[in-house]
Design brief:
The chain is mostly beta strands and 181 residues long. 13% of the residues lie in helices and 59% in strands. It has an eight-stranded antiparallel barrel. β1 and β2 form a beta hairpin. The longest helix has 24 residues. 24% of the residues are buried. The N terminus is likely disordered.
Length: 181
């Protein structure tokens, strides 16, 4: 009795699958998406040029001096599969807690991994020039999130190594970036 019930259930399932397949072969249209429904995942295009505005806060390792700056940022990216390679530069107006103010500039290269279409984890390194005049070598890393078709937000930590062996600093920056691709 159990065998007959199992055989009947199997026959019904196979028959229903055959009817569904035959309907596909007859040219019935596939189900169409409803207007306004996203049918594919959002893919952020990381390749190309970008520019934006940012803020950096830094704390020197000795002396307790802190620095804040507003940064104009430009850069370029290229991807190869999940890997990203890029270069970035910035020009900054800064003010520290002594209070002294001035300008600075930076240049760095970066390499990263695209954890998803919208999330990039990266390492960066380069140099920072300050008009005092000081030069720092930098090494750091960050995460960048693509949140619109052509916009991303970037949060990064960098350690500044003073080139003559003086006081280093720890810096955190955040930038809002517009991508032109």
């Amino acid at each position: 009795m159990k065998f007959r019930a199992l055989a009947l259930a199997t026959s019904l399932l196979l028959g229903a699958a055959g009817v569904a397949q035959a309907a596909d072969m007859m040219g019935y249209p596939a189900t169409q998406p409803t207007a306004g429904v996203i049918t594919s995942p959002n893919t952020f295009d990381w390749d190309g040029f970008y520019a934006g505005l940012g803020f950096t806060g830094a704390l020197y390792e000795t002396g307790g001096v802190s620095v804040g700056s507003i940064d104009g940022v430009i850069g370029v990216n290229a991807t190869s599969g999940p890997l990203l390679f890029g270069a970035e530069g910035s020009v900054s107006g800064w003010r520290d807690s002594t209070p002294t103010s001035g300008w600075g500039a930076s240049a760095e290269v970066r390499g990263g991994y695209l954890a998803s279409d919208q999330v990039l984890f990266y390492l960066s390194g380069g140099a920072v020039w300050i008009d005092t005049p000081l030069t720092y070598w930098t090494l750091g890393g960050g995460v960048e999130f693509g949140f619109a078709d052509n916009m991303s937000i970037d949060v990064e930590y960098k350690h500044w190594f003073e080139s003559t062996g003086g006081t280093g600093a720890n810096a955190i920056s955040a930038s809002l970036l517009w991508h032109f691709n």
